[in-house]
Specification:
- By secondary structure, the chain is of the alpha+beta class.
- The protein has a domain of 86 residues: Cupredoxins -  blue copper proteins (Immunoglobulin-like, Sandwich).
- It contains two helices and nine strands.
- 11% of the residues are buried.
């Protein structure tokens, strides 16, 4: 019987130790705290409206009248067109002979830059001074008096021309 009691005591102690050893409790999962979220309130974007922008095209035509009495005039001679190209050339150049009241039109055909002309001498400056011509635009001058008119180009060095109006 002594053996039986020893076995019971050993069992009792084993059960006691088994129950006394604590297992680590599972870690508590932190409960997330609610963080306020920021929501952007959409602001309506104004719809752009088309507003016509006036484009200033310099167009100077000299009006020099010798007398005020009405005169039957001959038809106007056709305009002479001088063209600026994208290759930095001006055609035609040199001396050009024109009848009185001929309109000369400088045209900028260069899509990459502006071109321009500048008068040389006081006679030519009566008709124009220094003019910049944007791409796709004309600049017109009608020479109403006989004389010699000279100009140079602004952006092409050593280019220009002379008009002899008779």
């Amino acid at each position: 019987m002594k053996k039986f009691i020893v076995v019971l005591v050993v069992l009792f102690i084993g059960i006691l130790f088994a129950g006394c050893t604590s297992q680590q409790a599972p870690a508590a999962t932190p409960t997330p705290t609610e963080v306020p979220t920021m929501v952007a309130t959409p602001v309506p974007t104004p719809v752009p409206t088309a507003v016509p922008t006036p484009v200033a095209t310099p167009n100077v035509t000299a009006n020099v009248t010798a007398n005020v009495t009405p005169v039957v005039t001959a038809p106007m001679p056709p305009a002479k067109i001088i063209t600026f190209s994208e290759f930095l050339t001006v055609t035609p150049t040199g001396t050009i002979y024109l009848p009185v009241n001929t309109t000369v039109a400088w045209y900028n055909a260069d899509p990459y830059k502006q071109h321009g002309i500048q008068s040389i001498g006081s006679l030519t400056s009566q008709y124009f001074g220094k003019v910049v011509i944007p791409y796709g635009k004309f600049y017109n001058v009608t020479f109403s008096k006989a004389g010699t008119y000279q100009y140079v180009t602004i952006y092409q060095p050593y280019s220009g021309g002379t008009f002899i109006v008779k």
